[in-house]
């Protein structure tokens, strides 16, 4: 009786969750979904044991079992693995299961801190968002989901901002400083931007309504400074676009909360040729059905996910949306995510804040390792947890697991 080796590719991930199983090839993006029961369960669990070198020996009798035969056919056809005859002459085939190996994990940084040599931790700071003040057109719902001003009347101390940013320049990967609020009402805005531009590029975020109230200033700034206009009022946006010609460098964030606002946004983009416009959905408390019908992922969409091995390892390690970002409110409180508690104050050193978030925080390393996602075979193919889950109060935005 002939024997064979089934060997999975080192580019193939296998995830087993209860009676569900999934193979995913990180190069071709092919998927093999299967029922993890009976004889197939025994084979899958054996292969998935890292000590077995991603292989299992099979007899002709085992291969004649319909569910095993069909599974192996799919594995081979989709190049997730190969079937090799065990003729007793050739060496046993081996493979390496793709397993994440952490180098700069939390324990590593804690060890460096105890040694007094953790200066490199600051390299994890990539972006800082300073809210300089609030706006009459601010929105607390949007403030918790995307870069958008609140309605606070507090005004930030710009000297403290500049000092904090100068201390943060130790990070070689600091790529952008964002300033948010009713910015053109701030007398010293020009001096502040000029000081911050010596550190890294600066982006201004202003609501379209605030722009309309400061048109002469905005026009003066538009040719020399990157400005992103935040839009939830499309009538105001049309008024702005009809007012005069604008710099092609002006950027727009168009906020979508319904099918109607989506249609309004796409019409304006096409009519006015807004090349630098992005459409971003937002939850506002009463539009959950819009999210469920248009933004929740279903099984068909999950089957079309295309990630590399590196992409998957990143999702297993850190939160793609939050990692590397600090948000500083006008009162000086610093956050890694505005939906979490403050991790410190602007008078703290950026180094200490980054270390605190990496070792104690709940944003940068917030991954899908909690229920119900940890019980799903698509756990590491889905996007990182986002602000949408936080404001909606639901840990997963998909229709596969209805929790």
Task: Break the fold down into its secondary structure elements and pairings.
Blueprint: E1 3-8, E2 12-17, E3 20-25, E4 31-35, H1 38-48, E5 55-59, H2 60-63, H3 66-77, E6 81-85, H4 106-115, E7 127-131, H5 140-143, H6 158-168, E8 176-180, H7 189-197, E9 202-207, H8 208-212, H9 215-222, E10 227-231, H10 234-243, E11 251-256, H11 259-272, E12 277-281, H12 288-294, H13 299-302, H14 309-315, E13 325-328, E14 333-335, E15 344-345, H15 350-360, H16 387-392
Parallel strand pairs: 7-8, 7-13, 8-9, 9-10, 10-11, 11-12
Antiparallel strand pairs: 1-5, 1-6, 2-3, 3-4, 13-14, 14-15
Organism: Bacteroides faecalis
Protein name: TIGR04150 pseudo-rSAM protein
Spatial ordering of strands, largest sheet: 12-11-10-9-8-7-13-14-15
Instruction: Note the main sheet.
Output: 9 strands, mixed
Q: Low-confidence spans: pLDDT under 50, at least 5 residues?
A: none
Mean pLDDT: 93
Termini distance?
49 Å
- For the secondary structure, the number of strands is 15
Under the CATH scheme, which architecture of the largest domain would be assigned? Alpha-Beta Barrel
The total count of helices amounts to 16
Kindly describe this structure.
It is a single chain. The protein has 403 residues and is an alpha/beta fold. The chain has two domains: 3-85, Outer Surface Protein A, domain 3 (Alpha-Beta Complex), CATH 3.90.930; 106-253 and 291-392, TIM Barrel. It is 33% helix and 18% strand. It is built from 16 helices and 15 strands. The chain has helices at 38-48, 60-63, 66-77, 106-115, 140-143, 158-168, 189-197, 208-212, 215-222, 234-243, 259-272, 288-294, 299-302, 309-315, 350-360, 387-392; strands at 3-8, 12-17, 20-25, 31-35, 55-59, 81-85, 127-131, 176-180, 202-207, 227-231, 251-256, 277-281, 325-328, 333-335, 344-345. The strands form three sheets. Strands 12-11-10-9-8-7-13-14-15 form a nine-stranded mixed β-sheet. The radius of gyration is 26 Å and the shape is elongated.
